[in-house]
Amino acid sequence: MPLLPESVRRLAAWCAVVLLVAGVGWIVIRLCEVLRTAVVPVLLALLGTALLGPLYRRLVRARVQRSLAAGLTCVAVVAVVGGAVYIVVAALVDTGDQIIASVRQAVRALTKHFGAAGTGLDDLIGNARKLLGKYGGTAASNVLSGVGVVGEYLAMALLALLLVFFFLRDSHRAAAALRSVAPGARGEELEAMARRAFGAVQGFMRGTTLIALIDAVCITVGLLILRVPGAIGLGALVFVGAYIPYLGAFISGTVSVLVALADRGFVIALWALGVVLAVQVLEGHVLQPVIQSRTVQMHPAVVLLAITAGASVAGIIGILLSVPLTAAAVGVVDELRERHTAAGPSDS
After folding, report:
1. In terms of C-beta density within 10 A (0-12 exposed, 13-18 middle, 19 or more buried), how is residue 329 classed?
2. Residues 269, 232: Cα–Cα separation, whole Å
3. How far apart are CA 162 and CA 167, in angstroms?
4. Can you spell out the DSSP letters for 260-329?
5. How many whole angstroms from its chain centre is CA 331?
6. What mean pLDDT is reported for the chain?
7. Is residue 230 within 8 Å of 201, Cβ to Cβ?
8. What percentage of the chain carries pLDDT values higher than 90?
């Protein structure tokens, strides 16, 4: 006679499974943190390969040699990304003084309205100067460490670009490589899961890119009609920010409204806010359901949890990678569930 009831033993077994999975996941996360300079470029390269695959295959179908096609694809992405970054930075630099002036004026108005004359922006600037003089050495060391971090990110970006070249050029060998890892029936199952995961990431990247392009065009046209300076650069910022769900749209929309407030006044800023909100409503109720209806569908709560977890693990890089990786995981789970459902009746 067993010492424990059947329900308790099942609960204990599930607890053991959950603890084992959590332990393995924790070890994997820690290894990724230690090896982030190698892991992050690989993940970024996979995302780039998923996004740039159609262009590469079109070049190959046009009888362009594989290495040349991969090289041309990488050159194209460098030109597009570099141009977008230049436009965004140039637009923000041109309107940066106006944004700072509008914020200064708003703070002074608020402090005057609430009677807090002693806590105005000028006092804050004076206190900041005192703190800078007191802790100047620490600030300088932080600047140097920041320069080192920027250099590390540039190195990872370069490595990711090189990996995109090799992943595109040798993509036709991926299936054979997976089968060699686990030959037989397990190899087919591994290949099916990998294809499902990559398809989910590919669908997510394509859908996000198309939605980002539509959002950027709509907001750019609205800002041009309102004669907001730097409208093209702000549209490029909207396009880049769309790859970070929710948070990216909030940041890019806030910057657009601030620029409108700095140069065109309060009324035009309200119109710019209306344009941003209208585009976001269009995205949430029309673009997302229509464009991404054939890709992996994730509940907004899952997306928010993924972004939070990614930020806590790897900061900005984690925010960028969290949603595509979650989409890949959902694709693998769906593949396993379908295989288990299909195998169920035959086993009975």
Report:
1. middle
2. 17
3. 9
4. HHHHH-HHHHHHHHHHHHHHHHHIIIIIHHHHTTTS----HHHHHHHHHHHHHHHHHHHHHHHHHHHHHH
5. 18
6. 77
7. no
8. 5
Give Dmax (Cα) for the chain: 82
52 vs 307: CA distance, rounded Å: 24
The whole-angstrom separation of Cα 64 and Cα 55 is 12
SS3 242: coil
Q: Which amino acid is at 311?
A: A
∠219-80-250 over CA atoms, to 5°? 35
For the question of whether the overall pTM of this predicted structure is more than 0.85, the answer is no
For residue 271, what are its two tokens?
Answer: 């119109």
- Residues 258/102, Cβ–Cβ less than 8 Å: yes
- Contact assessment for residue 73 and residue 189, using Cβ atoms and an 8 Å cutoff: no
Give the Cα separation of 124 and 102 in Å (integer): 16
| 8-state DSSP, 13 | H
- What's the mean pLDDT in 8-25? 89
Rounded-to-integer distance, Cα 294 and Cα 199, Å: 11
54-98 pLDDT, tens per residue?
Answer: 888 899 889 889 889 989 998 988 887 777 677 767 766 666 666
B/e letters for 289-308, b = 16+ CB within 10 Å, e = fewer, are eebbeebbebeeeebeebbe
Q: Which residue in 211, 213, 221, 226 sits closest to 259, CA to CA?
A: 226
Of residues 288 and 283, the one with the higher pLDDT is 283
Per the CB < 8 A criterion, the answer to whether 84 and 239 are in contact is yes
Q: How far apart are CA 1 and CA 323, in angstroms?
A: 49
From the list 204, 166, 180, 171, the residue with the least C-alpha distance to 71 is: 166
